[in-house]
Amino acid sequence: MNHLPLIIKREYLTKVKNKAFIIMTFLSPLIFIALIGLVAYLSQVNKDKIRVISVLDESELLSYIFKSTDNTSYNVLENMSLEDAKILSKETNSYGLLHIKKFDNIESATNKVSFYSEESPSLSVISDLESKIQNELTNQNRIKKGIDIETLKDSRINVDIVQESFEGEKTSKVDSIVKLIFGGAAGYLLFMFIIIYGNMIMRSVIEEKTSRIIEVIISSVKPVQLMLGKIIGTSLAGITQFFIWIILGGVLMSIISLVFGIDMAEIQTPQQEMMQQAMENPEINNQVQNIMTSFYNLPITNLIIAFILFFISGYLLYSSFYAAIGAAVDNETDTQQFMLPIIVPLILAVYVGIFTVVEDPHGTISTIFSFIPLTSPVVMLMRIPFGVPIWQQVLSLLLLVGSFMFTVWFAAKIYRVGILMYGKKPSYKELIKWIRY
Amino acid sequence: MSNLLEVNEVSKNFGNFTALNKVSITVPKGSIYGLLGPNGAGKTTLIRVINQITMPDSGTVYLDGEPLNNLHIKDIGYLPEERGLYKSMKVGEQALYLAQLKGLSKAEAKTRLKYWFERLEIGDWWNKKIEELSKGMAQKIQFVVTVLHKPKLLIFDEPFSGFDPINANLIKDEILRLREEGATVIFSTHRMESVEELCDDITLIHQSNKILEGKLVDVKRQYKTNTYEVGIRAKDKIVLKEELAQKFDISEANFKTLEDELKLNIKLSDTEMPNDLLRYLTSKGDVSHFVELIPSVNDIFIQTVKNN
To answer: Does residue A60 surpass a pLDDT of 80?
Structure first.
C-alpha cells in the first residue's frame, strides 16, 4: 500500500494550518519591511546630524581645503595653542580636532597631522580627511617640483580590459559582480531553507515521538515512507511560505514606497553616497547598461535547471539528517550534539562559496568543494553563474543524488530504531549500532 | 485453518541483548489469547514482530496460513501500550487519517466512524482537538481507531489502563462483541483478573523465552495442587485441628465466614478422593465451606516466573 501521498497531505496541512506557522508567514514580511523602514529612518536621522570638526592648521597651507558639506562642517581655528584648541573643541562639543603641525618641507608632512577626539573617530571620517590632505599636498608638491597638473591630468589614460573567453564570450568586471550576486543569493537561499525547514522536520519527528503516536503509525506504514512523507510535506509547506513571503514582501514594499514616498533605493551609507556621485559620471552610467547586458548574458536556463536540481537534492540530503536526529532523541535540547555535523559543512559551504568563489570560481578549492556532496549544493549554485562545464555539473549532481540516497537509507535505519527508543540519550556509538539492528 | 496466527521460533537480538529467543506461539482463530510476562520479558518485541514494526532475526510468522507480508497491515489492529495521538489535530480528521493508513477509503472510514462515535456516545467530539480531551476520552478514540478497519487480528496492550471502571467495562464488552463477530484477540496485560475473565488461551514469556502455553483451563488443571479450602464448626477446634493434622497435609486458611469456624487448607495426595475427605469432615462437625482451590492466573504467573 502506498500511503506516501496521504502522509504528505497530512504533514502539509498540519504545518500550513498551524497557527504559529500562519502568524510567521504573514508577520515575517511585515517585520522585515518594518526593519528596513527603521534602518531607512535611522540613516535619515543620522544624515541630519552635522559633524563639527575643528581644524588647527599651523602649516597654513591647508586651511582652505576644508569646505563644509551637508553633514560635516569644519571650524577652522587660528592663532591658538594646541592646548587651547583642544579645550575649545571639547567645550563646543566638536566631533574632534584635526591638528596640522608646522612643517618646513611638504615631503616631511607624513606624520605631522594628528586627530584628537573624545571617542575613537569613525574610519570613514579619518580616511576622508587623509585623502583630502594627501591630495592637496601631492598637488602642491607637484607644483613645487614643476609638474604641470593639467598636463598630468590630460596624460592619464584609462584602460578597460575586455575579457573574452576563447569561445568569444565577452565578460567584464560588472559581469562578475552580477554573477556573484546571483550565485550568492541562490546558495544563501538554500542555506536558509535547510536551516529553517530542516529544523521544522526535526521538530515534527520529535513531536510524533513524544506524543507516542509513532507506534500506531508505523504499524500501518513503513518508517521510510513516513520519513519521506514528512520531509516532502514539510518542504512543500516551506515552499508555500517562501512564495507567500516573496509576494507579500513585494506588495508591501510597493505599497510603502507609494504611501510614504520613501524610495527604498535611497537607503544609503556614506559609501553609497560616494557611489552615487560617481553615478552621475557618464562613464558609470555606461555600467548600468553593462549590468543589464551581463544579466542577459547569464546562463539563465542552466541556472534555473541547476538551481532546481541542486536545491532539491541538497535540501533532501540535509533534511534526511534532520529527520534522523529527530528520531534519535526525545526532546529538542538533546539535539545539540548531533547538530554540529550538519551545521559545520553548511557554514563551510557558505564561506567557501563567499571567499574562494569570488577569488577564483574555477580554482582548485572551489572546484573540489563543488563536488563534495555536503557542500556541493551551495558551492555549485554559487559557481554556476560563472559558467561551469556541464560534465562537472552532472558529475556533482550524480554524487549528490548518490549520497542523498545513501543518507536516506542511513537516516531511515536510525529513524526506524530511534522512533521506538525512549528515555535514553543516544551516543554516536549507539547510532552506529542501530544501523545493524 | 484453525489457527489465525502461528509464530515459529522467532528470535530477535538487539546488539548483545536477546529480546526473543526462539519463541513460538499459536493463536487459535476466534480466541482471546493472553500474552503474559513480567516487565521486559519480550512481549512488546513479539507484538512488534507480529505488527511488522520489527523484523525478526530468524523464525517465521504466518497469519491465516500466509507468511506475514505488507498486505496484512489491514488485517491487524494494534493498540500499543505507549499510545498517543496527534495532540493538535482534530479528532475526526485524525481518525480518518489513521483509518486511511489502514487502507480504508475516506468515505468508508467516515461511515464507520460515525457508527462507532454514536455507539460510544462520543459524536460531539468530532471537531475537538485531542489536547482538549481527557486521557480516558483520548483512549476511547484510540480504541475506535484500532478496531475501525475490522481486522482479523486485534492486539491490545494494556487496553484498560487509563479507563475508569465504567469505561473499562464498556471496552471489555466491545472486545467480547468483536470476538463474537469473528475477530481474534491478543491481549497483553498485567491485570490478572481480566486475564481470568477474558482469556481462553494464555502464554507466558519470561526472559525472552516462552515458558508456558495452553488453554487456560488446561494450564490451571496442570497447576492445581489438589488442595481444598474447608470451614468446619466444631465444639473443640484445637482438638479437631490436631486430629486432622495427623491424617492430612494442612495449613491455615483465610476466608470470611459468619461463625467462628475452623478454617483450613487441606492438601490431598493423588490417591485420596475429595469425597472421602468430605465424608470424614462431616463426621467431625458441620461443614460450612468446602471449595477446591483452583490456582489463579496470578498464582501461576508468580510461581512459574519464580521457578524459572
So the answer is: no
With 0-12 / 13-18 / 19 or more C-beta atoms within 10 angstroms meaning exposed / middle / buried, residue A179 is buried
- A281 confidence band (pLDDT: 50, 70, 90): low
Q: Between A229 and A105, where is the model more confident?
A: A229
Q: Is B126 exposed, middle or buried (0-12, 13-18, 19+ CB in 10 A)?
A: middle
Question: What is the dihedral angle through the alpha carbons of A271, A274, A278, A280, rounded to the nearest 10 degrees?
Answer: 120
- Whole-angstrom distance, CA of residue A352 vs CA of residue A358: 9
Q: Which residues of B touch A5 (CB under 8 A)?
A: none
Q: What percent of chain A has pLDDT over 90?
A: 5
Mutation site for A-interface testing, chosen from B12, B63, B97, B156 by largest number of A Cβ within 10 Å? B97
pLDDT digit string (tens) for A308-367?
A: 888 888 888 899 889 888 888 877 777 888 888 888 988 888 888 878 877 777 888 888
Q: How far is B95 from chain A (nearest CA, A)?
A: 12
CATH class of A51-146: alpha beta
| Stretch(es) of chain A classified as CATH 3.40.190.10 | 51-146
| Residue among A8, A215, A436 with most chain B CBs within 10 A, to mutate | A215
Domains and CATH numbers, chain B: 3-221 (3.40.50.300), 225-292 (3.30.70)
CB-based contact (8 Å) between B161 and chain A? no
- For residue B101, give the nearest of A6, A18, A215 by CB distance: A6
Nearest CB to B101 within list A215, A220, A422: A220
Question: For the residues of A293-328, what is the DSSP string, one character each?
Answer: HHHHHS-HHHHHHHHHHHHHHHHHHHHHHHHHHHHH
pLDDT value of position B154? 94
When scoring A1, A2, A219 by the number of chain B Cβ atoms within 10 A, the one with the most, hence best to mutate, is: A219
Q: What phi and psi values does residue B305 have, to the nearest 5 degrees?
A: -65, -40
pTM of the predicted structure, to 2 decimals: 0.74
Interface touch B48/A420, C-beta < 8 Å = yes
More confident residue, A161 or A19: A19
Contact A1 B53 (CB under 8 A): no
Scanning the structure block, which residue is given the C-alpha cell 608646522? A102
Q: Over pLDDT 70: what percentage of chain B? A: 100
